[in-house]
Automatic annotation (TrEMBL):
Organism: Sphingobacterium olei
Residues reported in the UniProt entry to bind Mg(2+): 167, 284
Residue ranges the record marks as coiled coil: none
UniProt-recorded name of the protein: FAD:protein FMN transferase
Free-text cofactor note: Magnesium. Can also use manganese.
InterPro entries per record: ApbE (IPR024932), ApbE-like_sf (IPR003374)
Amino acid sequence: MKIAIIIFQILLGCFVFAQHPNVFKEQVIQGQAQGTTYLIRCFSNQLILKKDIDSILNSIDLSLSIYNPNSLISTFNKTDTRAIQMDPHMATVVRKSVEIHKVTNGYFDITVLPLIKLWGFGPDGFKQNPTTEAISSILPLVGMRNLKIKAKKIMKNNPGVSIDLNGIAQGYSVDVLARYLEDNDVQHYLIELGGEIKVKGAKDSGQWQIAIQRPPSRASAPSDSLTYILNLKDKAVTTSGTYENKRMVSNRYVSHHINPLTGYPIENVTVSATVIANTTMEADALDNYFVYLNPQQAVEFADKLKGIEVYLIYFENNSFKEAFSKGFKNYIYN
C-alpha cells in the first residue's frame, strides 16, 4: 500500500489575506539532496538562493550521511576509529536520538546499522539473507550501552559498533532549513524533503494544507482516491510505512524497519503512521516507532505525548483500517 503526501493549496478568503499581505513575493526552490528531492515555497521580500539551500544540505550530508564515505559519521563508523569530535549537526541529532531512545523504550536506536547492513538494507546493498547465528553474533554490537557521549565527543566501546542517523536526519534537515528561512525574515513557508514537511504561516491566498492518502474501504473500488486534507500551521508532518523498502525472504516480505532488540524486521499489522509534531526531527524519529507498535499501543503512546498526534493505517481481517490519536482529527479539514 503506497501512502502519498500531497501538497494542496486551498483558498480560504479574507481572513487569511488580513494576516498575510499579498505584497510578499512568492519563491519556489526545488532540487535534489540526500538521495531524494526537496521543494521550498515561501512568501517574503527577502531573496532566498538555491545555492544557499544546497550548501546547507551538503553540509548536513558531510556530517550525517552513511552513503558518503567522507562524511563525519562514516569516519566514526570505521573499525579503526574509536572516538570523534562531533560537529554541531551531529551533536544535535545524537543528543535528540538519545532522548528518543529513552522515550521509545530502546526501540529507536542509532547503533542498529550493523543489523541494517546484515539484512541488506544498508549502503552495501543485499548480499544474502542472514542466518540466526549471524544475527546473534551482531546483536552485542547493537545498543546505546555501546556508546559514550561526553560534551561534543562520541566514543564506542567496540570497533564493530557503527551508527545510523537516517531515522532522524532528514527531519532535522527540514528544521535546519526552516531556521535558515526564519533567520532571513521568511515567516511564511512550506518545506518538503523526501516527504518530510514543515509549514509556517500561510500562502498568499490561503493556508498551507497537506493531503494524506487513505486506503480504500471495503465498499470502495481500489481505484477510488480518498484523502484527508490536513489544516496545519506552524507544524511538521511525516509519514513512515512498512511499504517503503521491503524484500522477499522465505516467501514473505520483510521491511527495512529492524527491531534492535531482537535483530529481526518488525512484523505488525500497521502499514503506515503519519505524525504531526512541532518539529520535523521529532516527527521523523517517532513515526518509525509508531509503525512498530500495534495500533492500540500507538494511539495510547501518542496520547501521552505533548504536541504529538498520529494517524495509523493497519491491515486487519483482510481489510485496511484507521486509527487516530485524540487530537489528530482537529487537524482534518474535510
